[in-house]
Amino acid sequence: MLDLPTIWAGLLALAIFIYVILDGFDLGIGIVFPFLDTDGCRDVAMNSVAPVWDGNETWLVLGGGGLLAAFPLAYAIVLPALYAPFIVMILALVFRGVAFEFRWRDKAHEKIWDRSFFYGSLLATFSQGIVLGAFVQGIEVEGRSYAGGWWDWLTPFSIMCGVALTAGYALLGSTWLVMKSEGVLRNKAYAIAKPMAIATLVFMGIVSLWTPFLSPEIAERWFTFPQLLFVLPVPTLVCILAVILGWGIIKRKDNIPFLATIGIFLLCFAGLGIGISPYIVPRAVTIAEAAAPDKSLMFMLVGALILLPMILAYTAYSYWVFRGKVDPNAGYH
Amino acid sequence: MDPIVSDLAINLARAQFAFTVSFHIIFPAFSIGLASYLMVLEGLWLNTGKETYLRLFKYWRKIFAVAFGMGVVSGIVMAYQFGTNWSVFSDLAGPVIGPLMAYEVLTAFFLEAGFLGIMLFGMGRVSKRLHFIATIMVAFGTLLSATWILSVNSWMQTPAGFSINEAGQFIPEDWMEIIFNPSFPYRLVHMVLAAYLTTAFVVGAVGAWHLLKDKTNKDAQKMFSMAMWMAAIVAPLQIYAGDLHGINTLEHQPAKVMAMEGHFHSHDHGAPLYLFGIPDQENQELKYAIGIPKMSSLILKHNLNAPLAGLDTIPRGDQPPVAIVFWSFRIMVGIGTLMLIVGVTSLFLRWRRRLYDASLFHKFAFIMGPSGFVAVLAGWITTEVGRQPFTVYGLLRTDQSIAPVEAPAVAASLLAFIVVYFALFGAGTYYIIKMMKKTPGDLAKLPGTVTRAAGTTQAASLKPVASDPAK
Is A325 inside any structural domain? Predict the structure, then answer.
């Protein structure tokens, strides 16, 4: 049934997915930064995202703000439950965000800001993976608030998710660089993309196989007969895209690996959705229970339906202005 | 409310919010004004073709980029802190304030971020007209952002247009009443003018600094002159807007005004304006008070003998912390007065044709450079501490808004914020000051700090050489 809470759950899922892809590749560039230390590769790598990075992070603000607005109860439960990983994530984002400008302002301390960019990106990604894992494995709720302890989020499963997401973002970042660069940087990016592709697929497989064992409810959803027909295409398509990804990397088709990676992320995201809905706090609070009143949702929906297409249009325009390979010699200012 | 939340945890969470929001407001206060200034500079350049405007545009754009970046990352912190530390507030007020903040993201943040890239890196890649449009969009975005977030804050001060459901949640009834709640127009005007003044005094101080070194520097003259026009025009407007805002506050949040004025006692026949005093909330009196009789009634009621109620009409448990509000208000007003003096003096010097040849005045303008930030912080402390002990005024108490947090977790994160903010934003401020020490001509010539590769060869070759001294 397409009621307002469901529509908003869909829109929020879309915003989070766009965030994961867009900030995924620019966090990923931070993660692979240590391997780009010669021939001015770092300058080019950073410049390939400099004009768009803060637009990318705005999707995270929309995710947080949108959750507060559309599902205030879920926001009020999830954030205290995942207190530490969220705090680490936002602090890490500060470290990497400032590096974009500071790095160019202080050549003498460039290395410090390179490290700030690397560790910030790595920690932000790892925390996002932890958040994802802790969220999927479930949050203890009593009444209208979080009722668990301060370290509930820290489990082998959430750490595994952190590792998997780190590999995944590194793959997004390196395949983005493949697409946006030439010469030495492109070669390096290909060299990084190969192991990252393998790592991503392996860790993703582990997480996928592990998830059903977290709760019989998820297992039931994946492994009983009528549902099985519906969910089976997900892993099948992942396999097809994995082959395309590998082919793109080996044959050096510059645009293919990045697009294939986006496809793999999309499928994982869909799989996650199948495992979670109709809950917004897994197995504790449903989308309908957490939803803000229709008056709030309707008021926002009107704006979102007008504004989101505009945002997508001018964001696409901005990407188009900076399209193509980045030229390391094209100075600016 | 969860009874296990200790007073210590609440106070730590309050300290954390105060710290992170205070740091955050510094950047928007500067970037709102600077974005508009950049728009004016680019417009003047396109209109007149004078190189000085382009040099100034590029100069301040670099500074803007650093300040804006810090504003973005410190802003993400705010978007999540509502949930981590103030989850009960988020749950209860979310249906009303959440959509307003979502609109802020949708209309303003994306607009700023989407066009910022083109504004910073797009010259030569897009036409001059499109580039100018990008700059306008960034400026417009900063103003839209201010509009929404001030609507949210104003609603917390003067809530309207809602009902309360059985779970205790605020439910929207009339969005126009919510958005245009009683204190919103005043607060919005007061804050936008504050941002413009803050920027004007920073630009003025940088201009003054360079004039002190070389009073014939045309770029320095231009920015100093523009800044002083702003000071002369906006400072009196701001004092007028502040007065109206105060009268509005008296109507809707009388306890805040009582604390600002230090009025512990009610006055039936005209209340005095206290210039100095030591508020003693324990004994409910203003010690060592020095005041002008009946002046407060004149300002607030426009009538010398109008009665004004004091804090003796407010239960002790509902009073804001008086000393903080009393002093922060005086700091703000004091700085406002100094700003007015600068503005008026600049008009006089301009009339005498000595604006660029008055080193004592330049020194004064230089010292006044950071004054806007202090005034903005003092003003926000006045209004936010003055709203206590409530988050939603009169309806939701601060100690009932808190998340089920434990003191060690909040203390650890507070410490982390303090260390990280001082280190990183300290470095950012240092870089900004380093750039400001250069003249616009010098900054454009320095290769090491200015070369940014973000273009293709083809686009770079389209760039008119004459318009870019860096090439």
Answer: no
Q: Is residue A230 part of a domain?
A: yes
Q: Is B47 on the interface with A (CB under 8 A)?
A: no
Question: Which residue segment(s) compose the domain that B249 sits in?
Answer: 7-467
Q: How confident is the model at residue B446 (pLDDT cuts 50, 70, 90)?
A: low
Q: What's chain B's average pLDDT?
A: 88
Tell me what pLDDT residue B467 has.
36
Helix (H, G, I), strand (E, B) or coil at B167: coil
Residue A87 amino acid letter: I
Rg (alpha carbons) of chain B, rounded to whole number: 24
Residue B250: how many CB atoms within 10 A of its CB?
19
Q: Is residue A285 part of a domain?
A: yes
B196 vs B339: CA distance, rounded Å:
12
Task: Look at residue B336 in the predicted model and tell me its pLDDT.
Answer: 95
**Cβ contact (<8 Å) for A295 and B449?**
no
- Return the pLDDT at B469: 34
User: To the nearest whole angstrom, how far is the Cα of B398 from the nearest Cα of chain A?
Assistant: 16
Residues 6 or more apart whose CB falls under 8 angstroms from that of A255 comprise A179, A248
CA proximity to A256, closest of A242, A267, A244: A244
Interface size A-B, in CB pairs within 8 Å, comes to 293
**Interchain proximity B453–A303, CB inside 8 Å:** no
Nearest to A34 by CA among A24, A49, A45: A45
A327 lies in some domain: no
Q: pLDDT tens, A245-291? A: 999 999 999 899 999 999 999 998 888 887 787 888 888 888 988 89
The whole-angstrom separation of Cα A321 and Cα A115 is 29
Instruction: Looking at the complex, report in whole angstroms how far the Cα of residue A227 sits from the nearest Cα belonging to chain B.
Output: 34
Residues facing B455 on adjacent strands: A327
- Position B2 in a domain: no
CATH number, position A312 = 1.20.1630
Confidence of residue A206 (pLDDT cuts 50, 70, 90): very high
User: Residue range A293-317: average pLDDT?
Assistant: 92
Of A292, A322, A332, the CB nearest to B95: A292
Q: Which residue of A has its CA nearest to B405?
A: A80
pLDDT tens digits along B171-193 = 999 999 999 999 999 999 999 99
Do A64 and B428 lie within an 8 Å CB cutoff?
no
CB contacts, 8 Å: B88 with chain A: 76, 145
In a domain, B261, yes or no: yes
Q: How many structural domains does chain A have?
A: 1
In a domain, B258, yes or no: yes
- A141 to chain B, minimum CA–CA distance in Å? 12
Can you give the pLDDT at residue B167? Answer: 85
Counting the structural domains of chain B, the total is 1
Structure tokens given for B94? 């979310």
Interface of B with A in 407-426 (CB under 8 A): 409, 413, 416-417, 420-421, 424-425
A300 lies in which domain range? Answer: 4-319
Cβ–Cβ below 8 Å for A76 and B91: yes
Contact B73/A at CB under 8 A: yes
- Does some domain include residue B1? no
| Closest-CA residue of chain A to B80 | A64
